[in-house]
Amino acid sequence: MMDDKVTQQHWLKALAAFELSQEELAEFEQQLSALSAQHLQAELRPGLSNNSKVEQYFYSSDLPEQAKSFNQYSALLQPSVLGSVNTTRPDFVGHMTSALPSFMPLMQKLMAALNQNNVKLETSGYFTDLERQVLAILHRTFYGSEYGEQAESFYQKTMHQPKQALGVFCSGGTLANIMALWVARNRLLSAYGVAEKGLMAALMSLGEEGYQGLAVLVSERGHYSLSKAADVLGIGRDNLVAVAVDDQHCIDLKDLETKLATLKAKRIKVMAIVGVAGATETGSIDDLKALADFAQGIDCHFHVDGAWGGAAIFSQRHRHKLKGIERADSITLDAHKQLYVPMGAGMVLFKDPERVNAIKHHASYIIRSDSKDLGAYTLEGSRPAVSLLLHAGLHLIGREGYGALIDHSVHLAQEFARIIRSSRDFELILEPRLNILSYRYCPEPYRSELNKALAAGDAESVVSINRLLSEKTIAIQVAQAAAQKGFVSRTQLHLPHYGDAPIHVFRVVLANPYTQVCHLQQILEEQRLIARAL
Amino acid sequence: MMDDKVTQQHWLKALAAFELSQEELAEFEQQLSALSAQHLQAELRPGLSNNSKVEQYFYSSDLPEQAKSFNQYSALLQPSVLGSVNTTRPDFVGHMTSALPSFMPLMQKLMAALNQNNVKLETSGYFTDLERQVLAILHRTFYGSEYGEQAESFYQKTMHQPKQALGVFCSGGTLANIMALWVARNRLLSAYGVAEKGLMAALMSLGEEGYQGLAVLVSERGHYSLSKAADVLGIGRDNLVAVAVDDQHCIDLKDLETKLATLKAKRIKVMAIVGVAGATETGSIDDLKALADFAQGIDCHFHVDGAWGGAAIFSQRHRHKLKGIERADSITLDAHKQLYVPMGAGMVLFKDPERVNAIKHHASYIIRSDSKDLGAYTLEGSRPAVSLLLHAGLHLIGREGYGALIDHSVHLAQEFARIIRSSRDFELILEPRLNILSYRYCPEPYRSELNKALAAGDAESVVSINRLLSEKTIAIQVAQAAAQKGFVSRTQLHLPHYGDAPIHVFRVVLANPYTQVCHLQQILEEQRLIARAL
User: Fold this and answer.
1) Which of A170, A176, A186, A236 has the highest CB neighbour number within 10 Å of its CB?
2) Model ipTM?
3) Which residue range is the domain that position A322 belongs to?
């Protein structure tokens, strides 16, 4: 047992951390700002691969016994901050993480200062109402047209209704996709008591109606979170049926029809059809209208994964590309992608605000059934009021601003596509539908040889030339990243006209508002120099 | 199609939000700080129930077309901030959300400024290593003793190992519990290909070995997230078997034995036994050592839900209460509870760093199999670097500080229990094991009548007196919350000596370092005044 006096000293020291003076806080904030500024100016962009030189900073697994001073901690933090990835760099165009509006860190600070827990009114106060409003605004943006002149009264009636929810916030698109499919599964099998008795019992009952199992359909470009969802929900990754894509990497409706017929013949029940609105690898958008028709035809849940591309709804120029999304039963949207909110903010919207009741849950000390708490409808329990961050974005950037950001990114992608197309050493793999682009290194004489082999129907040569080009593309990407110059990512794509073997391509995500055409030209120049040195 | 000039104007305006001057930022930050300060000083604590007066501020579902100025937005935000719940108030002791160390909002601001995505090294840099280190520190705190003198080399070897993970961060305890049971399910059924073929196919194969289904066991005090997990994972809420509790609200080992025997007789396979370490409603801690023995005896996964109580490991005075936790296969821990990190930070630790491979997943453009990315092992995809916040806590509060905070809270709970026990009008329901306490209103003459009825074995009178006391307890809690005075929550507990009907009790969570004995006395005084006026 410890000495009471020592305990008291520790306690007072701990309490002091809650009651720092304005001066102490200002000084620490100043130190953190200086670190952050130093990082943003640094040319260094490390951490792109496993690195034992990095690990030296993080080798100790000892629990710190005593509190450090702020000066000590700032010094300790320096390598981490300087070693974080500068996602604001205009030539960092490989992933979906980019610069944020400068007011966002301030909003995040406010959010932490208020530290609301949106699971329940008792710990969220007005923030539950604010969250319901943000969800209503988004819902109306996607679905409002469906209600015509009734829209205003529909939203007035539903947005603050205890037993309804127009959607839920969650930590990101993966959880949003899981939520959507969870709702679809439980609604489909509610009569068989899936939530209570489990999936096996429910499927046995479904079996008595002659069904052999469940399936979810999505194109080959579906995000890997859907496969995770199929695993978690007990459906099985193999039962996430991958539908072929056309040459635009959109779902092939013929193949969808074939797959649906096969499943019907096998007496497999289709639980959901998922449309991709902004594929992670190619930016392509499925024909959502056609998918809505298919889903309607077999009376299954129609989900749209708009984690990336859903934000195009804000652009008057590009929103038509999402046509049909207003018929989706649920839509996934990531605020931390093209709505420029800090990491950790996803949403799933439900067209029918009653549908979330399929997964409703209660607990006696919290989320009672008569309250408007959103916690009854979320996969997560306690959770931050991230809706506040999107609320700030919606008001401080506005529809016009978000639309302009989308327009600019798509324009940039088109410009980059034009540059690649007119180059002699790079091959554009796909015309960008939104702001994701794929291309690869493909100089002479490989280009002519490839064309010859294609014309001659020489599949073997096509594969071997593509293999060489893939090797070069990978080598360039790795070298460019390691050189801490421009950063593009890479992925594998299966292109029917190149045969069965997938090819490796550069993947460019253009959402950073600092990125200009000159940065993209520079990235190509760097790649050329690296290629020459290979 | 819009006019290009207008588009250009919108674009420049949007870009301006990314490039605010130091002066603009300072002014907006000042406005937000003023709002926040105004809120923290306010006596108001609204939003505790559905309220149409609140809804008036949040009635519009229109997407804002144009960006507002910061002044306009601050004004718009005022009711929300003032209407949020002041979780720092010393008499706000009803939930697990409390005051935070004052440096936390600054760390959260830094985190947003850096906006790292810990799914992958390419967007997290050194923060993946930092996260692995934080997980190693926590793992060693719980499991280090198991490795004796080998501990240092064990952690050196595993913490940065690509194909291993000592744990994962997630947005909260609910996801942590889901992750733990997902791992348990997939590991148990991996030979039957549960991840690929689905739960039904796997259970059919298990059925060929003579098993009829799966079950998870936890005491009646298990958190509702476990029921959600059973639903999501396809096991079924009914197959989360609730084991009775003893008079300390700890799992009744006799009943566990009976339930295990029943399941064995029914040929139901036990997938996991879950120990509760700090029950949400009562703060009670199961006999983890005994549960470890049971789990070992039937070779099943042993999970400990330490979302609340796990932090007691930091206290030299109270860590012995967690004895046996070092034998758990997995442990859930919430950093946003008693580690005083802002909302949105949970963890699950895995004793065996290989075990997470049961749910591993990859995607070709991201999280490749040879990298040390933690994204391969998380339920979530893109996610913030919340580990940074805990890193700050560990270094700026230290083991000593966290220990002192726990010691103080437990001491406060014991003091409050003493006060209630010696009062004539309140009944202590349970001696606090940690820092959660339940009591109810129970004045004369009810107390004497109840004791008489109990002595006489008059079950009917016991129930009717308890019903009256429950009504009064509820009325007091509601009135106190509505009066915006002290806030305690309430829940229902089933107490064997009071018969089958549950009773309603006040629930007090003592983790706010600002709370002192005088605040608790004042809460009782308020409740007495309310009771008199009833």
Assistant:
1) A176
2) 0.96
3) 170-381
